[in-house]
């Protein structure tokens, strides 16, 4: 018999229409895969309304998932509401306290102190990305004895907690068994196009699922003929855009740089320093990253990067000639082993029939190889998506450039981006 569930999303920003709810779609999709049927999805204010909602669900659900309302302020009432419904006290949890103390030290004794209290008898869900621990436990006063799971609302905290801790627990809780699946990381392709590509190759014994992430889409393939399916998918959308395992383009590039003791620099226009930011997000990046130049205007391209005025006037900022000079001059200016450059039209304005929004040129220069430049035309049209994809593409293409591939030959097969 299938299990049943209901989902409660808490947040005044949601009920006021300031932001949209994406949590319930994500959670319900994953529950469906576990043969858990979702009865209801409700959005409520941060005003204690959750208590009445939970009371009404106790006899009709095997699982109740709550997101939001775990902050340190007085209107974050989820902990106390769940404790009341479960008929237990809120108690200081040592694991939650120790984790939070490592993050904020003595500041824990301020408003954050309330976040180390969870309903008595419940278990902690650790939160390495924020201050609010999640928790789960059964409400025993109901005949159904439902499991309730409470997670923080911010996506950067909820998503890893849900996928890394809650889903594995739920699979065991409901006795779910799945066929062995192959995990892949796909780059630069949007979900709808990836679904289209997979559907065009589908066979009876093949199934797949996806998990959207900021810089890639994780693809999970199941079936006896999964190897042939994956090979066909790589041929269709580009083998460089489908890699084994849970991988990022950034880590792939960093690994190559470290393994070969290489240094890198970059010159960015439309990405506005995003690549430099990502390359330096983790400690130890000074061992391979020397620096970057955000040459957003033509004046900076000319005055700082020494891109010829004639080049900019004749070919424009978004051109093969400009990105080649940007990359070569950055290599010389910052004295690194390799350099890449980016110049494109991120929109929403600035596009032309010859260079529409989504047009991005990439340049690459090295002390040991001939410079190369390639153009990609991204089908996504939002500024955020174009900039993010441009950064991912720069990392992927730099990996290929360092491995001495002809970039122009490779991108000819990237038709789904």
Features:
417 residues; alpha/beta; six-stranded mixed beta sheet; five-stranded mixed beta sheet; 17 strands; 23% strand
Structural category: alpha/beta
Backbone CA Rg: 25 Å
Helix content: 25-40%
The overall pLDDT average reads 91
Low-confidence stretches: none
Number of strands: 17
The backbone outline, from C-alpha atoms, is globular
Instruction: Please give the count of helices.
Output: 15
Instruction: Give the DSSP E fraction (strand runs of 2 or more residues).
Output: 15-25%
Q: Distance between termini?
A: 42 Å
Main sheet makeup: 6 strands, mixed
Strands side by side in the biggest sheet: 2-1-3-8-7-6
Fold and architecture overview:
With 417 residues, this protein is α/β, with parallel strands linked by helices. Helices cover 37% and strands 23% of the residues. The protein is built from 15 helices and 17 strands. The chain has helices at residues 12-15, 23-33, 50-57, 78-86, 94-104, 155-173, 191-201, 226-237, 249-259, 274-279, 298-303, 309-315, 320-334, 383-402, 407-411, and strands at 3-10, 36-44, 63-67, 90-92, 117-119, 123-125, 134-138, 147-151, 181-186, 207-213, 216-222, 242-244, 264-268, 289-294, 338-344, 359-366, 372-377. The strands form four sheets. It has a six-stranded mixed beta sheet, sandwiched between helices. A five-stranded mixed beta sheet has the order 14-13-15-16-17. The chain has a four-stranded antiparallel beta sheet with strand order 10-11-9-12, with helices on one face. Helix 3 (50-57) runs parallel beside helix 4 and helix 9 packs parallel to helix 14. The longest helix is centred in the C-terminal third of the chain and has 20 residues, at 383-402. The chain starts with a strand and ends in a 6-residue tail after the last helix. The mean pLDDT is 91.
